[in-house]
Design a protein that fits this description.
Blueprint (H helix, E strand, L loop, with lengths): L1 H19 L3 H12 L2 H7 L7 H13 L3 H10 L1 H7 L2 H10 L1
């Protein structure tokens, strides 16, 4: 429906605006996290199908590699995502479910 498409575009525009406001390191991560195709990651890992939890773990590991400044920058725009990506309990649950 046109109204749903308009709402979706508005949400995506808001996300992209937040990404543009990030510093270079955090922006690079955010772009990769929010726009990268999970199938691309699978191809990078030998073409094996990755479970959804393992895709999330991939991004958790990438987030962990960011500098403290980039993590702070990212969490200022995407606090819920940053909290999930740095949650040790979530990491344990992912490993336990594999």
């Amino acid at each position: 429906s046109p109204s749903l498409a308009k709402k979706l575009k508005s949400v995506l525009d808001a996300i992209h605006k937040k990404i543009e406001e990030l510093g270079p390191e955090a922006r690079g991560f955010a772009t990769k996290f929010l726009e990268e195709d999970p199938e691309f990651i699978q191809k990078q890992r030998g073409g094996k199908k990755m479970k959804p939890g393992m895709v999330l773990l991939h991004y958790m590991n990438e987030y962990a590699k960011l500098s403290p400044e980039a993590k702070k920058d990212f969490s200022s725009k995407f606090p819920e995502v940053a909290a999930a990506l740095s949650d040790p309990l979530l990491r344990i649950l992912i490993y336990a479910s594999q």
